[in-house]
Request: fold
Amino acid sequence: MALRARVLYEFSSENPGEISVKENEVVTLHSEQDIEGWLEGTNGRGERGLFPASYVEVLQRDAAAAAAAAPPSRYSGGGLAGGGSSFSPRTDPQADSLAKVTAMSFATLPVPQQPHKHQVSHGSEDDWDDDWDDGVAAADEPAGYAPAGGPDFESYGPSTYRLSTSMARGSQQAKSSGTVGRNLNRFSTFVKSGGEAFVLGEASGFVKDGDKICVVMGKHGPEWQENPYPFTCCIDDPTKQTKFKGMKSYISYKLTPTHTQSPVHRRYKHFDWLYARLVEKFPVISVPHIPEKQATGRFEEDFIAKRRKGLIWWMNHMSSHPVLARCDVFQHFLTCTDEKAWKQGKRKAEKDEMVGASFFLTISTPTAPLDLQDVESRIDGFKVFTKKMDDSSLYVSATLSEFARKQMTGFKKEYQKVGQSFKVLSQAFELDQQPFSESLNQAISFTGEVYDAIGEHFAEQPKQDLDPVMDLLTLYQGHLANYPDIIHVQKGALTKVKESQKHIEEGKVEHPQAEGIQERCNIISFATLAEIHHFHQIRVRDFRAQMQHFLQEQIGFFQKITSKLEEALKKYDDP
Amino acid sequence: MALRARVLYEFSSENPGEISVKENEVVTLHSEQDIEGWLEGTNGRGERGLFPASYVEVLQRDAAAAAAAAPPSRYSGGGLAGGGSSFSPRTDPQADSLAKVTAMSFATLPVPQQPHKHQVSHGSEDDWDDDWDDGVAAADEPAGYAPAGGPDFESYGPSTYRLSTSMARGSQQAKSSGTVGRNLNRFSTFVKSGGEAFVLGEASGFVKDGDKICVVMGKHGPEWQENPYPFTCCIDDPTKQTKFKGMKSYISYKLTPTHTQSPVHRRYKHFDWLYARLVEKFPVISVPHIPEKQATGRFEEDFIAKRRKGLIWWMNHMSSHPVLARCDVFQHFLTCTDEKAWKQGKRKAEKDEMVGASFFLTISTPTAPLDLQDVESRIDGFKVFTKKMDDSSLYVSATLSEFARKQMTGFKKEYQKVGQSFKVLSQAFELDQQPFSESLNQAISFTGEVYDAIGEHFAEQPKQDLDPVMDLLTLYQGHLANYPDIIHVQKGALTKVKESQKHIEEGKVEHPQAEGIQERCNIISFATLAEIHHFHQIRVRDFRAQMQHFLQEQIGFFQKITSKLEEALKKYDDP
Reply:
């Protein structure tokens, strides 16, 4: 007999993973053990999820029977213990629809949601020498030209990498409680990111001047203050390195930042570690995703080239982000050449206090506060924008991928068949060995070769023009997947402001506390809008540049064909 | 019980339609009635065909049973009665293979053979006003882009249009017999064309000076003497005419020859009549085929344009042929404007004596005779050439036709899908109404339009470049279909020479008679080689011009695409 409970107070789900329950409804429990005040169960509508343990009264107690009858809870995994890597609070049935994109249906596509592929590396001193960068595999395969043009190394929907940190933080912060209530759902991004703790005034820490992150008012609204020391960083062709007398081998990338001109060598696992640090530290910044891991063939040229390309894009977005580019851990990654200093910096980064909730403390904003209604409408507009951009990126990716495939197969074949037929005609004509037909025969034969070459050009071209566009789209799909979380944090803050205002009316909280909440929400809003502004800026920059590159390549391609044909045409002049 | 016969003398088949039979072999007869001395039957190897009636002895006579058991003879149709239009002595099982041309198999393709589509018009005064040019239909359908790229208005293999004339002539000539035997098979082109009668010295007629046709020795061998009055003739857009107060309508073509500058109006049926006259008159000249008839839709624009194109090609080949261009009936066709004179000329042409066998009387050759062995090897070489050219023309046609189809469907679709996806992306971007992204949005939208237009260009292009090449190939496939007959006439003459030489050795014929045969064979050889030379000359001219046109069009096409793309690229400059 399953464990059951009667609902004492109505509860409306606010976050994924939660279910709504009605007063007096009887719910089935999957375990009698609550998870930090939450129970998992199934409500009368058959929905399974979490609800507050204090809202229900358990009806029957038969622990032994319940343990046998109920399947192991999806929510009782390692996630709550701090591991979090396989934890996936959101499972979206629409994730499959990703593959179903067609030209006609893109407009009605839902925002695709997929469990996050990246596993967070927390790093410890002794795992540095393991080859975990390549040994563990996500279920990935060489992308090639998949018809649906799926993204390669990005994911959709809210990712889970902030979980372990925020959970730990959440428990610490639970000790001090404000009058405006905390969100009961520990799976909410607002909570996980530290946004809630910050808004409620629970974050504390000493902010050094050097750590200050400024938001300024630009022409179009809040912006991150520009990096006064802009730099770029090139990534050279990676080389294969061995250690333990050749027993182990790995790929090493040489990075040369322009501001130091001093090369450092990094492995994929270092990128992975850095990525985890950044994601943990910056709640409202879209950290670009690093290229995905690969189980097999990690020394294959194609894979190496693809990963390098992905890392170059990643580096480009990192170094052009005013906040990310300047942060300590990234600078450490880019500049540290000494092994001992590297380990120290690594430890320091892992113990960084100014992450999550405390990160918000480092933000300084213009004095004039934002109009919250205006902020809300801007955020809502951006939410619509990301959805539309995500849908159309997916559609463009699928279309270009198919176009590339067609050029590499059908187009190539057609032109080469034409070339072959001209060659066959010239061979027939060569049977007539009269001098006056010789030059024609040669010209037709040459024309055949030209068409053969054109076919080859068609097959080679997508690498030059379509692939880079698809890479860009992939990168942006990664960013777009970050934004639901970022928006969620801002929305959560806004909700707290509204709550506090209501509570003031009801006399439940004091003005100063409500003002504090509003001030801190203002900071989050500034940061969010600055990040959105940055997104649009680099989007316009990147897409302009990429479209220009695409068209230049296409023009060059057709000019190449034209000059080939002109060469062939000349052969017919010779009498 | 079927009728059977025992073979008295061995007979080797020399022509299509005949079968070989061995002495003492028993053959099955399909009818006891002989056809001008020939019987139809099946030999011991299961081959069905004709053999001389006098070579066999009929074994059993049961006419009633035989009539019931044997299927109606394929060879007892109207052909022998002189109608000839549906008569098809050769039925080649390989004709179907036409449709099976593939890239890999072309090399081993047999020379395709198809029954001739054209029906010969003998013309009489009173049928001129009938609409028989359009009313009777061959089994044709709009060609469009059939995957196999079948020829449109030409046929393969020996055609039957000479049959009725030559049969009639054959019977007349049978009255005077030489010592060198005549070919027993009345279906042989050698016989039908009048070639045999001429070689045997049976042709006679008065040749006016103006009718003389000269073969001269050119740099590469015998050539037709050039037309001293070269001209071309343009065919204007046809107009629809009506008569009988609008009861009947037809299409009229305005022809304007350059040497008269005086336009004449002709209908399709006039072309058809002229074609029949030319085919009858010139045994060793490849008369270009006129465009096929069409049953329905004969006033439809597409069809009219296609027929006009075909007539222009036809006219081009007619006017550039040194013999055809100058012949009376063609000049009459091109220049006569008076209705009464037209009818007189028409009657005269139909009563022309210098056709078939007598045509050869009009040929004057250089005095030095040709080396017959050299002639034989040239003719054999040309035979191989035509076979190879026919195979490869068929292959090129099929390939280009498929290429055209791909451009009009797949290529167009792919480029337009890319265009559509760019438009969708720009629509997503337009949701962000910040001024700094506006010009990018417009540029991407414009790029979408450009790719849409490129798709349209791909679909339109085949009309400009591939269609004319395919038209040329079709025309040449028509010529190539004429050559087996032409070669056959020359081969027949050569065989007679060899026979006569053998007979001299055996004392069966006198020297003067053998010399006469050799001289007349020499004339046929001169004419054949001159015609072959002309073929190569126009082939080189036409294919050079057409390939140049093709490449120029292709270059123009890719330049158009390039400039479209450049236009799109410029849109991204605008900041």
About this structure: The first helix of chain B runs from residue 63 to 69. The domain at 233-353 of chain B is CATH 3.30.1520.10 (PX Domain).
